[in-house]
Design a protein that fits this description.
With about 200 residues, this protein is an alpha+beta fold. Helices cover about 30% and strands about 15% of the residues.
Length: about 200
Amino acid sequence: MIVRNLGEDQAGSSAAEFALVLPLLLLLLFGIIDAGRWLWVYNEAEKATQMGARMAVVTTYVSSSIGDSYVGACSSALTQGDVIPASCFSTITCTSTGCTGGTKNNAAFTAIVKRMKAFLPSLSESNVTVEYSPSGLGYAGSPVLPDVSPLVTVKIGTPTPLAFKPLTSFALATVNMPAFTTTLSAEDLSGSQSN
């Protein structure tokens, strides 16, 4: 039997060094994968917001007050054909729980969210806000379209942030994505389909 000096024995040193480096290597690998997943979800959310805004400007409006007549309204009463000043229309915010002005059209809100979910399947109605703000466009007493032509803003991440679960946290933690916003000027605000 040969007695070896353990202090000089090099057998197994490669395995020990690899065992020390492996956790760092795995953390780096999963970190790179998480960065790619983050960018993927970020891109999906950005596209979903754009498509939600497109859907909101060409389909039925969410707040019933968008369809109100402005004849006789405002500080100086408007007559049919008068331009509606931006100061005459206040911002209306619609979420899954309701609108700050008028009655919420649940079917219209759900249709917008459904279109957005085609691009971001993890989206829920609580993540979406549709906002109508003054643009200074529109004429009182329009016989066909709504009197106002607001700016329509669709947001993801308000009131409830969009959550991202990184692999490096072993699905124990979530990170909130930033808010995503797209604004377009309203078109016909009627119908049920968008391109």
